[in-house]
Amino acid sequence: MMGMTWIFVVVGVLASTTSAVPYPGDFLPTPKSYSGYSLLRTEPLLREDLARSLLILDGMRGIHFWKYPLVNRSSDILTSPAQLEHIQALLATLGVSHDVIIDDVKDLLAKENDVGVNGYSALEEELERANYAKTLASQDSRVTYENIGSSSEGKEIGLVKISSGGGNKPAIWIDGGMHAREWISPATATYIMSKLTNKEPASESLLSSFDFYIVPIINVDGYEWTHTGDRMWRKTRSRNNGRCIGVDPNRNWGFHWAEQGSSTDPCSDIYHGPRAFSEPETLSVARAIKARPNIKLYLTFHSYSQLWLVPYGYARNTRPVDYNELVRLAQVGKNALSATYGTSYRLGTAPDLLYPAAGGSDDWAKGSAGIKYAYCLELRDTGRYGFLLPSNQIVPTGEETFNGLAAMAKELHRTLKKQQTRPVGGPYVNADKELNSPSGGEAEYKL
Ligand SMILES: [Zn+2]
């Protein structure tokens, strides 16, 4: 595999841009600079009202929450030099102490990419590498590339299928790049693609038991924008008929959509969109998943925090009836991951470990698509670099995650074999309710 730098991982993203609509403010002369921005970490917010008071900063110019303010945990806030005093004054008024954990993120941005900084030169190099998935498909008969839909800006959303031999094998679905700035996510999905096709015995063995479907970058527009416009962009790039662009794609899935942990404000980074599956990116991926009923395991990659999240995330105390089985399989994966480099992950539901967040893809995969084993992995790190993970961590992150996946797949294969004599199918609730409702984007949704 070629040099592992951040610019490598654009897979087919830029392959076919058509009909991008110009929008005021789109064409910055240079990418947004984060020179002088610093990252603050508050002490744990001991009361609900403290968290709420900090939330007034959400969506303000020059301020980005890397970790949302929530009761009983610290909040990470990236701030421009112009806003620094304002935030520090607010924290002082609230009696909340803080540390400056990154002085100037510009230094990290330089370190993150050892070929060049974010910008057009990097973009040009990406264009050369844009067709990794397609190249792989042309070189290896086991790999097929499919365009499963177009983004808001008209870019292809690429799905790679890796399958050896015929037959109707159970399948594993992996996706990444839902949130634009979480670069380690598409990089890890891409790394797994390269591992699965390296013809080594471990990969061959996995391919003898499962087919793999991989969408390395769901949010193709946002991902490009983190290279050309704003490194800290999280959402899609859809136009909301208003002052703010983009929807949080991981609040946009049609299972308990628009409930806790998402926002009605189009300017918020956790805006859930005007309706479930309003975004062509989430709709295309959901449709592709539904069309493949043999998927037994769903994995989605995010960053950061090193968490292995088990459904459901939409509210507290909403564990699925087979929760313990999901935890048992996750434990196998987590142990193998940690055994690689000692990287530790915490395992549990999002409300247990973080906060409730409704409209996520793993909840939908479990609750609506009926995929028994569905997980969301928050990859490296725990906040030292956050989204700006240095490029020398791409390969180790890929290796450990692949090892976790491989161990889990083996165990799942054993489990499925045992089940062959028993009826298969999971107890799941609420399937398709949102997809079939008028607000669920069902009009465009052909299953
Ligand atoms: Zn994310």
Automatic annotation (TrEMBL):
One GO-annotated biological process of the protein: proteolysis
Residue ranges, annotated region (Disordered): 419-447
InterPro entries in the record: CARBOXYPEPT_ZN_1 (IPR057246), CARBOXYPEPT_ZN_2 (IPR057247), M14A-like_propep (IPR036990), M14A_act_pep (IPR003146), Peptidase_M14 (IPR000834)
Coiled-coil ranges per UniProt: none
Pfam families in the record: Peptidase_M14 (PF00246), Propep_M14 (PF02244)
Catalytic residues (positions): E378 (proton donor/acceptor)
Gene3D superfamilies registered for this protein in UniProt: Metallocarboxypeptidase-like, Zn peptidases
Cofactor requirement: Zn(2+)
Keyword terms of this UniProt record: Carboxypeptidase, Disulfide bond, Hydrolase, Metal-binding, Metalloprotease, Protease, Signal, Zinc
Annotated GO CC locations: extracellular space
Domain Peptidase M14: 119-412
GO molecular function: metallocarboxypeptidase activity; zinc ion binding
Signal peptide range in chain numbering: 1-20
Family affiliation: Belongs to the peptidase M14 family.
Protein's recorded name: Carboxypeptidase B
Lineage of source species: Eukaryota, Metazoa, Ecdysozoa, Arthropoda, Hexapoda
